[in-house]
Amino acid sequence: MADHGHSHDGPNAHGHSHDGPGGHNHSHSPQPGPPSNQLLNPEPIDPALQADMDASFKPRPVKLVGPEGHATCQAVCIDHGIDKCDDCGVDYTDLNLLARMLVQAPNLIVPPPPQVTDKSRSTHVSKFKDEGNVAYKSGKWSAAIQSYTMSANIAASRPNWEPHTLAREEISTVLSNRSAAHLSAGDYIPALVDADVVIALRKPWTKGHFRKAKALVALQCYEEARDAIAAGLQFEPDNKELLDFMSEVDSKLAAAHPLTKVAA
Question: What angle do CA 181, 186, 189 make, to 5 degrees?
Fold first, then answer.
């Protein structure tokens, strides 16, 4: 059965709106809440770190292409007009990616406050995940995999300033579901790959270890499946799902190797 997660619009998820035609007005009258300098003026940087940054700083000429302020506007090298140029020794790909993110989220203040999350992104992650769950329950494995993939891609596209734990939870939940769909479709290797990614993202979560063991059993790798279950039981020794499946795997091992005693 596929897992059912939830969108994470907790108390730390904040939206921001800015009045005025330009989106920002820096001559605001005092408003309730924390002073603006708490958001826009962080603590002074360590002098030693600042000195190291200054010593390694090398100014680079840059050219902007595309309409100014438009999403297609990007920084490129002057000589060749590309954002990553080995000849000029520049790489503006991350800068251009950040610029596009900020253009697509015009209501965010810069820099964003800590723990800000995009509620609409969470909604879309949950929407496609739920569509995948419906397809899974209906036995439509291909449709389920497609919806889970879309949900995972949206979760993975969260900007770097959003909490990483949120993306990890979203992606691991969706990939766990996708692993189950791959398994039901008879695609055992993709099921195993998804399970391994779930474990890498969220190791203490026993569902990833369970998914891995299920895929390994389908591949008739019973010893490896038993090891996967044992790894999950390290985090939850009394997990019934894992314990029950361990008994099933032990039975398969005994049938495959009748003269081999399975270790307790």
Answer: 85
Superfamily per CATH, domain 119-256: Tetratricopeptide repeat domain (1.25.40.10)
Q: Taking the model in full, what pTM does it have?
A: 0.59
Contacts of 238 (CB under 8 A, 6+ apart): none
The rounded distance, in Å, linking the Cα atoms of 128 and 11 is: 23
The answer to whether the beta carbons of residues 67 and 73 sit under 8 Å apart is yes
Tokens 């081999």 -> residue: 260
Averaged pLDDT, groups of 10, the chain, 264 residues long: 45 41 41 42 67 76 68 76 84 79 66 69 94 97 97 88 86 97 97 97 96 96 96 96 95 78 51
* Assigned token pair, 47: 């002098």
The count of C-alpha atoms lying within 13 angstroms of the C-alpha of 19, restricted to the half-sphere facing its C-beta, is: 3
Structure tokens at 42: 């962080």
Q: Can you give the pLDDT at residue 162? A: 79
Q: Which residues sit opposite 74 in a β-bridge?
A: 65
Coil, helix or strand for 2?
A: coil
In the structure encoding, which two tokens stand for residue 101, read together? 């993110």
Q: On the CB side of 210, how many CA atoms lie within 13 Å of its CA?
A: 21
Where do the domains of the chain lie? Answer: 45-104, 119-256
